[in-house]
Amino acid sequence: MNSIAASVQARAVSPERQAIIDLSAISKNITALRDIAAPAKLMAVVKADAYGHGVVPVARTAVAAGAQWLGTAHVSEALTLREAGLHVPVLAWLHTPSTDFFAAVAQGIDLGCSGWELEHIAAAARAQERPARIHLKIDTGLGRNGSTMADWDALVAEAIAYQDEGLLRVVGVFSHFAVADEPHRPETDEQLQLFREAVAIAEDAGADLEVRHIANTPATLSRPDSHFDMVRVGLGIYGLSPFADQTSAQLGLIPAMTLQTRVALCKDVPAGQGVSYGLGYVTAGATTLGLIPLGYADGIPRIATGGPVHVNGRSYPVVGRIAMDQMVIDLGPDGRSHFASAEVPGSALGATAVLFGDGADGGPVVEQWAAAAGTLNYEVVTRISPRVPRTYVGGPAGTNGPGGRPANEPGGQL
Questions:
Q1: Mean per-residue pLDDT of the chain
Q2: In sequence order, what are the beta bridge partners of 59?
Q3: Which of 64, 159, 188, 299 has the fewest Cβ atoms within 10 Å of its own Cβ atom?
Q4: Lowest mean pLDDT among 63-72, 125-134, 350-359, 401-410
Q5: What is the distance between the alpha carbons of residues 135 and 173, in angstroms, rounded to a whole number?
Q6: Distance CA 320, CA 329 (A)
């Protein structure tokens, strides 16, 4: 077998592009955050396919690492967890009139309630002769979901009436911070005060609360007075920092996702060569261009020109407009000589190209792509599309393959 045939055979079993998810990093992050939050419990927030990391493998890893609760936005996400055999407490909090409250009650899923949902939840409980578990949500200032303080007394009274009927149990009161990622802002103190008042009203009305919770990742890290009975940690378990002035490493967290592919084309071009749609980038001199087969269909923000790609020990900024399936890096006039050890001698063709990872080897981190796109680190990881296969490494048994399959089963990848 010649070298090209051997290379083709080897590459056929490896994804052309992949998001490598380090489950051991997620496990370590949860352990670190549990230690910070103790004695409060920890809810691992796995909504949005676990921020793009894969809901079932991440949820299994989280529970194995000691997360006592799981959190999702939608009931459909919570039902996926139940179907995967996860029977720890799960809270779902964002509903519409089309939400399957019947299935949620049947599967023992805790439900967030801001007001209008209460009668729907009670009806589902009545039909099954099984009490629902609800967490009443108070809007303490974020202005999204949750009851206003003006409506809170009435909501609590209605919930307690249903509780007296045996249709539900008010087991929690919760809220959500607006600016906890900016610790200097006074609004967090104001929200905490309103939350305490709302909890007192519910308890005085007869709610026997199991959990009071308002802290997100930044509050878990910076506001121990907000921990109450439980913290809800999302981006922190994926190893991402919520603070503009502190890195993941400074917080003791390990980024869990590495996004990589292989250079798809490498070619020499003269000075004056335009690159990509609009020709917004033109080469200043003779240079070597590398084609990276990832684009906005894979979840890379179209506006993130300048984002770094790490190839053979160096990082190169994306030049020209990011397209649906591809982007271009300028390897510079010495692009040929630098890649003497690449798969094709004197070329970057086939070399591993890393867009972001944990940064331990000096390579790029997701915050650099977020800066290029003018957004947040967790938006970048969450939007990586299903077209990019997830490959799982590390973690407890049964979590290392796509969908939580062990790597040695069909469909598993390591």
A1: 91
A2: none
A3: 64
A4: 401-410
A5: 5
A6: 8
Which helix or strand (DSSP H or E) is residue 160 part of? Answer: helix 149-165
> Would you call 351 helix, strand, or coil by DSSP?
coil
Q: Is the pLDDT of residue 344 over 80?
A: no
How far apart are the C-alpha atoms of 313 and 338, rounded to whole Å? Answer: 10
Out of 28, 41, 47, 137, which one is annotated catalytic? 47
DSSP secondary structure string, 10-73? Answer: HHTTS-SEEEEEEHHHHHHHHHHHHHHHTTSEEEEE-HHHHHTT-HHHHHHHHHHTT--EEEES
Question: Tokens 């007192």 identify what position?
Answer: 200
pLDDT at 12: 53
Euclidean distance between CA atoms 375 and 124, whole angstroms = 40
Check residue 146 and give its pLDDT: 97
**Residues making up the chain, counted from first to last:** 414
Question: Catalytic annotation on 47?
Answer: yes
pLDDT-derived band of residue 336, with 50, 70 and 90 as boundaries?
Answer: low
In 276-414, which ranges are E strands? 281-282, 287-292, 308-311, 314-319, 327-332, 352-356, 390-393
* DSSP letter string, 356-392: EB--TTS--BHHHHHHHHTS-HHHHHHT--TTS-EEE
10 Å Cβ neighbour count for 75? 24
pLDDT tens string 263-284:
999 999 999 999 999 999 999 9
Residues 397/406, Cβ–Cβ less than 8 Å:
yes
E-strand stretches of 273-313 = 274-275, 281-282, 287-292, 308-311
Model-wide pTM > 0.85? yes
Three-class secondary structure of residue 77 per DSSP: helix
- Read off the tokens for 311: 């190839």
Q: What is the pLDDT of residue 391?
A: 97
User: One of 28, 162, 267, 277 is an active-site residue; which one?
Assistant: 277
